[in-house]
Amino acid sequence: MHEQRIEKHLYERKHQMATGEWSRSYYIRLKDWKGIRRVWPAGNTLKTAKAKRAEYEHRNALREDFDLAKVKGMTFTTWTDIYLKKHAVKKKSLAEDQRMVGVLREFSGSMLLSQITRTTVEEFKQLRKNRQTWRGDPVSDAYCNRELGCLRHILKLAVEEGMIEASPLVKLYKENNARDRALTEEEYQ
Question: pTM here?
């Protein structure tokens, strides 16, 4: 394979096929307005390659988001995969995050990120609060809050990455961790 620069942001790539003939294709390489290096195929003729290069340079000058099309169809499952690989991989609580993500996926895995609303979050809260532990006790507010906190964090990162416009409000339960009473002196002894 042989590659050479033709003009600014325009490159030609030649490679020999199995028949011995040479194939030629053109690529556009430029750093977009966000500072990300981009590469796009530009066709097999120089004329179409120059036209595509002008189009991408124009879109870059207008500060168009080149990743927007990738983001529009992003499901919750796909985003949580990215979250676990990119954001949670170095956390001490990775195993717990994986467990919580599994629970969240059961509820809203096939939904698009943009479809998760405050109503969806409230439905999830009620579903998780109404379940019981393996001993038959009701699940504590604190336990539900850990899962809701994980959901809140995942949605906040989705906003920061530009996956969604705004994160729905995730209200946590009020935790009641107060002691019932203090030990008497006799009980302490």
Answer: 0.59
